[in-house]
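Entry type: protein chain
Record version: 2
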Amino acid sequence: MATAEPPHAASRARWEHFAHIADVGIRGIGSSREEAFAQIAVALTAVITDPQRVTPQEPVPISCTAPSGESLLFDWLNAIIFEMATRRMLFSRFSVQLLDHRLEAEAWGEPLDPERHEPVVEAKGATYTELRLFRNPAGEWVAQCVVDV
């Protein structure tokens, strides 16, 4: 679990996993909602493999529209999971733009190589369990949810 910093401290974009009984909790933290969305996407990859093993060589555009920030987060993660499954790719770098209730992004990755990537599990989908988008006491944006594996 990340520790809070004083509100005047500069944000350090990062991701983390958190405990959940049956599945895996993922969290992205950043100075903006876009940064938090990008970091939770890296956390999603880290459920499957070490993101440092994934070369960001090919961009894949992803767009989502939803009525709320949390719904947009849910759709974003499921869109990434869909792209991973249908393209048989993994992603390690994400560029996200949020405009009202619309997300425009690029996920950078490469085709899955089981020997090099050594995937541990398959992410089946984001869930509404612990789905939240909020600002922490340090003023950072936090995006989180539980992923079904």
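Comment: Residues 15-148 form a domain with the Archease, Possible Chaperone; Chain: A; domain 1 fold (CATH 3.55.10.10).
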